[in-house]
Design brief:
Layout (H helix, E strand, L loop, with lengths): L9 H4 L15 H11 L7 H12 L22 H16 L5
């Protein structure tokens, strides 16, 4: 699996020279990179499987939130209210089985 680290300095932050304002995310280079990779269908693949393996190796439980909901179309990262509800309801039986009876 390939990883991309984007260091959070003033260039990724999108500072407009001689101001304290920022460029909108879609105009900053990380936003342009993300948009181009997303448009090309090159999103992260295999992350859930990688986390599942680490959890298994460490004897931890794992739940793939992506199995019940995607991310918001607004920013592609966070969850909308209906997605929070879907995830919360899906987690109830998973967490309940981990609790002592």
């Amino acid at each position: 699996m390939e990883n991309i680290l984007v260091y959070g300095d003033s260039l990724t932050w999108g500072i407009i020279p001689d101001t304290r304002r920022r460029l909108p995310f879609e105009q900053r280079w990380p936003g342009i990179l993300e948009a181009q990779l997303s448009a090309a269908g090159l999103r992260c693949r295999g992350m859930a499987d990688a986390y599942r393996k680490v959890a298994s190796d460490e004897g931890c439980s794992f739940f793939d939130a992506g199995s019940v909901t995607g991310s918001s179309v607004v920013d592609g990262v966070h969850l909308d209210a209906d997605q929070h509800e879907r995830l919360g309801k899906a987690l109830v039986p998973e967490v309940a089985r981990l609790l002592p009876t």
